[in-house]
Amino acid sequence: MALTSALFTGLSGLDVNQARLGVVGNNIANANTVAFKSSRALFKPQFYVTDSAGTSPDSDFGGTNPAQRGLGASVAAIDRDYSYGSVEPTGRATDMAIDGEGFFIVQGTEQRFTRDGSFSLNANNELVTTSGDFVQGFSADDEGNVIPGSLTKLAVPLGTATTAKATTAVNLQGNLDSSGAIATGASILNSQLLTVVGGAAAPTGATLLTDLADNTAPGTPLLAVGDEFTLAGKKGGRVQPERKLEITATTTVADLTTFLQQGMGVNTTVPDDGNPLTPVAGGAFEPDGTVLTAGRLVLTGNLGKDNALNLDGLSLSKQDGTAPFTFIDGENAAGITSNPAGESVHTSFVVYDSLGTPVSVDLTAVLESKANTGNVWRFFATSGDDTDVDTAIATGTLTFDNRGLLKEATNTGITVNRNATGAKEPLAFDIDFEGITSLTARDSTVAMTQQDGYQVGVLNSFAIGADGRIVGAYSNGQSKALGQVALATFANNQGLIDKGGNQFGIGADSGVPVIGEPLQLGAGSVRGAALEQSNVDLSKEFVNMIISSTGFSAASRVISTSDQLITELLNTAR
Q1: For the chain, first and last CA: distance in Å?
Q2: Pair (224, 312) in one structural domain
Q3: Number of domain units in the chain
Q4: Judgement on whether residues 20 and 154 belong to the same structural domain of the protein
Q5: Residue 296 contacts residue 284 (beta carbons within 8 Å)
Q6: How far is residue 464's CA from residue 357's CA, in Å, rounded to a whole number?
Q7: Which of 99, 210, 264, 501 has its CA 20 to 30 A from that of 465?
Q8: 241 and 309, same domain (yes or no)
Q9: CA triplet 514, 516, 517: central angle to 5 degrees?
Q10: How many helices (H) and strands (E) does the chain have?
Q11: pLDDT in tens, 144-176
Q12: What's the average model confidence in pLDDT over 341-365?
């Protein structure tokens, strides 16, 4: 009986050691499997035969211990080691690794969980596993705001276009030199002497342009119905956007002076400072003081050297390339001479309308006044992309304290006409001047640092952040979240059921999955363009393999020895 039991005891040794060899073999086979978790086989003794339960001691007897004979071993458990493998970069955007606790959630015929982040994009640009299961996460709206809650498939629509966004806010930074000279002068441009055709009287604002003649050739009209003016003057040395004026039978001298003032971006809404030596900006026709039958077109610019006007050469020409008017620096009727001087600075920046069309805006700031309480600067905004003739779009003031910090900014809301462009009319945005100071410096400098509009863009690439957000990068320089990878954690990872293919399912002892964002609810972070490696320790597995094979050999010797003894017993019985 005992020899027969020894056979089965040895057999149990074979069973458990070959089970361990199977586990070791599986670990070694998956040593290079992404995010593979190694296992170990744990043994326990089988039931015991009790020959004696033992006796208790008394005053005459010391007692005996129980006598039990074991009947071999069995596999107690096969545990999985969920310790983290090393994370190695791959450079592949769709690859992900979990740094810490948690599992990716995938959906095929059923919901499963995995730490294998070797994902790819299918034909519909959806994130899928190597077996075709959909990677689950949270979607994002058109503004890039992640919508937490229900899980969904994650898509990365490479090559698709995003809608444009109109600019609503612009930020400027820089410094306005407080040591500069106050702007007191402006450009005053005078045309040649002009008269009514025939030279009988001086023109007025109501005179038709077709009745206007050069005073040196009064018999020849300068303009005819159907002529078209092209205005392309300079301001602060910068060529201004072209503006056109078609001459009709009703176009007057006043129409021409308004056209010049608006086309050159001269702002006429600046409040009068009461100084008789400060020229008033605008266009006008002024009679000549000596030639009673003649007068001049006069264009007066805004203060500051960066607002200096120039209408030389063919700045104002007809369709045949000729220039009927000649403008030079001069004086106005009040005797004030052209002198565009004083501290000023110019910058330009681009904003976008609702269709994503770039709209160029020029901004000039001039030092308007100084006081013990601080300086006041005036800014002028113009835009050649404004769809009406008038390129002047705004003017306001910047008031600084005696530390050079901005106290107040007025008229910072800017509107640009976009009539008949298909875009929302008008384009309206605010300029934030909080980043501007007025301190002593060698030069005044101003630049745009940020604006929130953008053109239509195509999704070119994407990256995955530590919080699992999939952030797309567009050709227009914008980026926004396309979705967020979700992670699941369990109270007991050991309770998960291996479904094969490096995926797990919920087990009876795993607990329910706690699903949320990475870095929340105990979940780890996500490493984009990287993969978690297997946690198999090959040196340890080789040791286990040797121990298991030795145990297997020893158990087989128990069987062979028992067999020899039984054979000997049978031979003796004959």
Answers
A1: 19
A2: yes
A3: 3
A4: no
A5: no
A6: 30
A7: 501
A8: yes
A9: 145
A10: 3, 43
A11: 899 998 999 999 999 888 889 999 999 999 999
A12: 95
